[in-house]
Amino acid sequence: MLKQIGIAQNRVDGPMKVTGEAAYAADRRPGGQLYALAVRSPVAAGTITRIETAAAKSVAGIVAIYTHANAPAALDWHADPAVMALSGEGLGRQALEAAEPEAPPPYLPMTGPDIVFAGQWIAVVVATSLEAAREASLLVKPIIEPHEASVEIDARNDRFLEPGFFFAADMQVQRGAWPDTAAKQQIVSETYRTPMQNHHPMEPSATVAVWDGDAVTVFDSTQGVMATREYVARSLKLPLDKVRVISAFVGGGFGGKNQTWPHQALAAHIARALGRPVRLQLTRADMAVASGHRSQTEQDVALQAASDGSLTALRHVSRVPTSLHGNFFEPSGLNSLMLYEAAALGVRHHVVRKAFATPTPFRAPGETPGSFAVESAVDELAHALAQNPLDLRQRYIPSRDHYHDRDWSSNNLLECYRRGAEAFGWPEGVIVPRARRDGHELIGVGMATTAYPAPALPAIVRLRLRVEGKLQVETSATDIGTGMYTILAQTVADELSLPVEAIEVRLGDSNFPHAPTAGRSKSTASLLPAAQHAARALLQRLAAAVREPLSELSNVALQDRLKAAGLAELEAEGSSTGLQVGQQVSFYSFGAHFIEVRVDEALGRVSVTRVVSALDCGRIVNPKTATSQIRGGIIFGIGMALMEDAAFHPTRARMINDNLADYAIPVNADIPEIDVIFVGEPDNRFNELGVRGLGEIGVPGTAAAIANAVFAATGQRVRNLPITPSAIV
Ligand code: MOS
């Protein structure tokens, strides 16, 4: 019987976080710690001819300055392709390999004189205080011969690459007979654009490296301690067991901390060279260039429909940039592969190299910008056909996953539409633009569909029953703010019939059992089955030790049995296998957003005033943390729709808003009540509990629902995000 799963349990780590007891990476203060800060390139392209460091070296407290001139020898710091393959620079390499056999060599800062993007780290200063490091970093003077740099996508003149597989999906797909355009068809064919976005988690990335003999402990802000351990160990040429990575608390990680980055290894290299602990802290400006971003996209979407509205063709062509040396690109067409019942389908991606820092995953990478384009186009089609957009979308629910040629494990999208529309009060019939006004404000409603895959990877969870104290749960997984501490406690509590308070969850330590990186919404489905198995294994071992069957015992009773068996503690592990190759069904989550906006036409100001989202994400383990995840995703979508835009200087190709004063994100005043409805049933073909991850599904569709609502309010179709006042007035 499930007593804890399904309960809106408060976060078990909440009190630690609000009292400051939770130690984040940069909170670690090992004795004798040195402070390292980077110096960034002021130009986007060029060659460093010299770096003047004399003035910086005269700052009191300065210990070392590293540049490409001394870092390779002094730090054993080299761009080893095998190591780079483990880093963010290597992500997506496979997808571009066939398209670009002459791929540029991997890039690592401070290994050569070439500048390949503005903000690139060209030096690192190390001092006895943060203030001294800061002062010295401002006095380092690079002499650079600048080159031309381009950060603009030019659809006609750029050289585009045709990538292969990404996230296990073929990025170039053509299926079905293309309809004769002369036939009686409704056609929407438009280009949509989304901006570059920075992750900017509340906790900026930082690494504190502490050596003890030939082993190093790395306190880091990462979504994956195991991946970070491997990267750091390979960079230092150490066996894995000589590197320990700890990331017990993460102040947000939206994909930027999903990859590994040079700073994580660099801190350990510097600490080794100087024989003292080193803290390498990224500033807010560093976060904009040295921990990834979502790239801008340009997407052509063409929809063709018969007069009854049935979709005869969907074409989705994306032009997206990657950096000059990296590989990740935004796979905008992912959901177009499977989300629409279209007779003919064409999905293509074209990738161009530009003088940017390398992009990374960013909360529902691909699905998010892709859904803005296609879900806007579906709304345009509904208006062209004089149909209600909800009615039209109901026709497009895919009967099965045609792309993977499998049935859905479950698909309750229709129920999401029904319950969301009912709770929102979605209008019937044709939506007439500019039909509702309240004083100086126009009011409009819009909707959009969201979908996100439900992956799972192998994971191990260890339990430790002790004669005294709480039952310990250990796994190397991280809780990036999602609630993993809490739902693991709930799962183990249910299996052992204990209260949540009897359980202590310990996460984010590479000495704990293996778990995947927290990303692509897979942690819940990877870890909870392992926790269940661990709890059952523990009961079996205890039963064997005391030679009696065990069930429905309190923690004290479990501890009494342990004592009776003459044991101080008892450990048990449980594992999950993740998804198996050759699975017969397709695991996805689905949902629909219903959004109301008010638009002040005189000021061009758009306010989101109501949001109802109905989602099918399997069994909900904790309605409180799950609702928070979806709300967070929707707030991401509101930021994308109305505010966020990493902007570049038109001639200097450098980001002009690499700070939180100029890079606008939503604040509380921008966010209305967000009503989240979970309609899903347990997905028991996925795992015994029927749970799926839901970290990202709130993001896709939100920006389209807002843009569609803006159209309903004003009659203006905005196809370029963000929808700033100048798009309205
Ligand atoms: Mo996920 S793109 O790591 O937020």
Automatic annotation (TrEMBL):
Signal peptide range: none
GO MF annotation, one: iron ion binding
Protein name: Xanthine dehydrogenase family protein molybdopterin-binding subunit
Organism, as annotated: Microvirga brassicacearum
Keyword annotations from UniProtKB, A to Z: Molybdenum, Oxidoreductase
Pfam family for this entry, one: MoCoBD_1
Ranges where the Aldehyde oxidase/xanthine dehydrogenase a/b hammerhead domain occurs: 19-148
Presence of keyword Transcription regulation: no
SMART domains, sorted: Ald_Xan_dh_C
